[in-house]
Amino acid sequence: MEHYKLNRKYKDRLFRIIFREKTALLQLYNALNNSHYTNPDDLTITTIDDVVYMGMKNDLSFIIDDVLNLYEHQSTYSPNLPLRGLFYFSAIYREYIEPVKHQLYTETPLQIPFPIYLVFYNGMKEEPERKELRLSDLFLQKSQSQTPALECTAFMLNINLGHNRELMEKCKTLKEYAQFIHAIRCQIASGLFLESAVENAVNECILKGILSDILRKNRAEVIDLILTEYDENEFRDFLKEDSWKKGHEAGVQEGLQKGLETGIQAGICELIKTCAEFQLSKEQTLKKIQNGFSLSEQDAWNYIEKYWQD
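The structure corresponding to this sequence follows.
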């Protein structure tokens, strides 16, 4: 089966498909703000499809009750999110005042919507439920006595399955999105390549009523987007690292129960088997053992010769 090479240019479009309808977007907004808006037309969409810099795209933005909400989905953490937010807001505000731009040079103050910037994170790196990122943290010079001329604050929410449970219960669509991504990862973890993993996850979620309407109506589009935006290699690297940790932890636990020496040997054996299963070379396994168990190169080779199974 063909192993797809991923194109990051189109990354994060699935999130937009799911929440591009005003009804779903309003549900998400209400869940985040404990509000009770019922009319989707209260939203004024301000999303910019081809925004300003390095091919970045503005995922979702809208105005409601004089608040400009910028929602971005990310599967890769970056401390530069506030800087990107600055570019997004600049582009959106510029378009917003275009009809009255001549007033920029008058004595009359221009009234603009209050900005809120939320980032929905579902990457493999462990992150807290909520994290605040500030543009000022990126400045080369920091001063306690001066206030910077610019600031942009991004609030990052972890939307991996099992995180921010209260929010997930309030927004059924967001919870189902997390379940769908989790289903894909489970299929990959079972040993399938991405194309088969996505097909199986789509079928499974439709049967379970998870994003079923969206997946039925947009099946081909969703599958195509996942195949281009999902970082399969990153997830497989995570599985390898996670397996290594579990092997090491197994050795520690075994050591506590049966004695340190026996436990360490069990952990080394588990690690070697895991490395072999994931097709790491003996040289790569050697480094893992040396780093994880503080062994000499010769001792590490002895364990590999003892436990390696081709």
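Strands lie at 44-45, 60-64, 67-74, 114-121, 130-134, 153-158.
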